[in-house]
User: Which sequence fits this backbone?
């Protein structure tokens, strides 16, 4: 089908994101096999995934059971269920890194919808699907700066990562803990690849002195900004725009060069309703599914659906940095452990 036009940028790492609690349980028989039901595993916002479920059920004669938990929790659950899978589809994890790591675990199957069949694996620098079809991107995430509009003007808000080191921001910045948050680990590793490790560690020694807090949650800095507890917070774009839409005094800056990545979906290898899982991924890329994501201020990947934020694929592509996924996979745990040793 349609070639995805104007895609940009690259990657994300979120292996240890969102330690959540389990949500709704699916109904299954004694053999663990679903019949006429689709079981969705997702760490994304429960209210948003509920809306996806409702829209799918409105359009199709099938029921979707949503299981919500943090990314690591869900991956561990799929590993434990490997011999008798309970899920049909896995959606979301803060980017492609958890999916890349899962490829060799034997827990995700291969499926690329017709909509994405003509996409290159990498479009203008961003990996939009797995080379063997193990996942496909369904939306775009941008790492950047939330700022409190009552405390910071648009003109003085930081525009680059180096701007965060300005003395005027000392004690006024929050970013999440890279030892716990995948959002922050993405920040650290992107700087490592751009600056080299030695220079990046020097940068983060200075940035750590600027922060008034480094919470474990990736969304916490943006929430702190909305409450006036920080002037600047590092986080993903949708976190800021969702709060802004609720009337909070928050806006967002896309830094000059920053990680931009797809958030994927995959069928679960051997899931009880493989065809249902494929249909749900088709739905995620459809206009109806993409509209739900857009309504939650995520940047849609389907060009027929308009973003509800000022951001779009076209507008952010020039800001994207090229990240080495293989390097990230090889060094992810080491860098997180080094952060813990240096700063905790």
Assistant:
């Amino acid at each position: 089908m349609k070639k995805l036009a104007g895609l940009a940028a690259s990657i994300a790492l979120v292996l240890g994101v969102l330690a959540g609690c389990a949500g709704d349980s699916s109904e299954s028989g004694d053999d663990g096999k679903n019949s006429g039901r689709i079981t969705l595993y997702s760490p994304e916002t429960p209210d948003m995934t509920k809306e996806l479920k409702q829209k799918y059920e409105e359009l199709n004669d099938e029921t979707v059971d949503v299981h919500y938990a943090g990314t690591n929790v869900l991956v561990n659950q799929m590993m434990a269920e490997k011999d008798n899978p309970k899920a049909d589809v896995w959606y979301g994890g803060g980017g492609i890194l958890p999916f890349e790591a899962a490829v060799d675990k034997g827990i995700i199957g291969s499926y690329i919808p017709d909509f994405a069949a003509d996409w290159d694996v990498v479009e203008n620098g961003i990996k939009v699907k797995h080379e063997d079809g193990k996942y496909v991107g369904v939306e775009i995430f941008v790492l950047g700066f939330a700022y409190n509009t009552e405390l910071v003007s648009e003109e003085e808000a930081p525009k680059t990562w180096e701007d965060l080191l300005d003395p005027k921001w000392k004690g006024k910045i929050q970013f999440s803990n890279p030892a716990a948050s995948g959002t922050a680990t993405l920040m650290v590793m992107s700087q490592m690849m751009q600056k080299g490790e030695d220079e990046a560690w020097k940068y983060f020694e200075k940035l750590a002195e600027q922060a008034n807090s480094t919470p474990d949650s990736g969304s916490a800095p943006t929430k702190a900004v909305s409450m006036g507890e920080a002037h600047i917070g590092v986080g993903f774009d949708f976190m800021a725009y969702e709060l802004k839409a609720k009337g909070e005094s928050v806006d967002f800056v896309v830094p000059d060069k920053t990680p931009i990545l797809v958030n994927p979906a995959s069928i679960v290898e051997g899931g009880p309703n493989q065809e249902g899982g494929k249909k749900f991924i088709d739905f995620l890329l459809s206009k109806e599914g993409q509209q739900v994501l857009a309504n939650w201020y995520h940047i849609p990947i389907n060009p027929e659906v308009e973003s509800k934020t000022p951001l779009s694929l076209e507008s952010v592509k020039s800001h994207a940095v090229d990240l080495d996924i293989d390097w990230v996979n090889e060094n992810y745990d080491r860098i997180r452990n080094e952060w813990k040793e240096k700063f905790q």
Q: What stands out?
A: The radius of gyration is 19 Å. The chain has two domains: 37-139+259-315, 141-258+329-343. Residues 141-258+329-343 form a domain with the D-Maltodextrin-Binding Protein; domain 2 fold (CATH 3.40.190.10).
